[in-house]
Amino acid sequence: MSVLLPRIVVLATGGTIAGSSANPASSAHYQAATVPVSQLVQAVPALADVARVEAEQVAQVDSKDMMFDLWRMLAARIGYWSAQDDVAGIVITHGTDTLEETAMFLHLTQACPLPVVMTAAMRPSTSLSADGPLNLLDAVRVAASPVAVGKGALVVLNQQIHAARDVVKAHTSAVDAFHSPVAGPLGFVQDTYVHFSRTPGPDQAPRLPVPAAWPLVEIVASYAQPGRVGIDAMVAAGVLGFVVAAAGNGSVHETLTAALVDAAACGVAVARSSRTGAGHVAIPAPPRPAGGVFVSAGDLNPYKARVLLLLALAGDPSLGRDAARLQALFERY
Ligand code: ASP
């Protein structure tokens, strides 16, 4: 008697996993987002031993050009497929450049009970030693695995399983470019063995709605002798929130601090992340943030912190006027 394999849907958005080059020896010069998902699936016959795979081309973009409309479309397609009775899991193929932001968006918005697993590749599909085929197979294995249920949005690359909230791209070209710098990976895939060494943190907060309209939220960096003209211009243009890629443990140059204090006085939300690439930015000691001591984005890098601030300000544009609530938000998600 043959066993019915789980039904897994692959939603493709483009990226290097769907990239091609006329020169297979080149892994740096190629065109991203050119190969249709049907062809990517066909190139991995072993998928047929793992799942009944169905593929949908949601978009075909280089993820450097990611837009909120595509995030919304992705959320809608996840909603559609996860409502089908016999779908066991969803895999999303994506470019590596902004994967960590889309992953954060999915972490914050998806209450989907099925595994939602992102994957990508550092080398184009035509490259010698392309990493996409194994990453796709591993992602489908994870999406089809009962042990992945209830673990939140996941990212599978280079045989590692990461929490979508934690994972970042930390190298320009290496195949092991993805890390979870503070928490570490959740587990690994070794051939048919899908193993979770730990479960993601106890985030019980409700998922945030996908906005109909997105506020302006920007990232500014602190470095030697910064100017304040950019901040002042952005406030005048209606920016509702800033994430500061601050130095070290959240230190902000006094020139930027002065500009951000003025912005905060107009109700703009300001959160400090770190430009170091790893670690938790110290939370201001009680009494909770006031004056030039802005809230901490915790261990979220500036790009991930911006996604949280975008979604939070979309739901409550006045959040910038309440530093204690803003701090609580970053401690919650
Ligand atoms: N520029 C590509 C993208 O993000 C890079 C990649 O996927 O590795 O779509």
TrEMBL record:
Parts of the chain that traverse the membrane: none
Molecular function via GO: asparaginase activity
Residue stretches making up the L-asparaginase N-terminal domain: 7-199
Binding site for substrate: 63, 96-97
A Pfam cross-reference name: Asparaginase
UniProtKB keywords: Hydrolase
SUPFAM superfamilies found in the cross-reference section: Glutaminase/Asparaginase
GO biological process, one term: asparagine metabolic process
Enzyme class at the top of the EC tree: hydrolase
Active site: 16, 96
Domain of life (superkingdom): Bacteria
EC numbers, comma separated: 3.5.1.1
Domain Asparaginase/glutaminase C-terminal: 217-315
Gene3D superfamilies, per the entry: 3.40.50.40, L-asparaginase, N-terminal domain
Family per record: Belongs to the asparaginase 1 family.
Designated name of the protein: Periplasmic L-asparaginase II
Gene: ansB
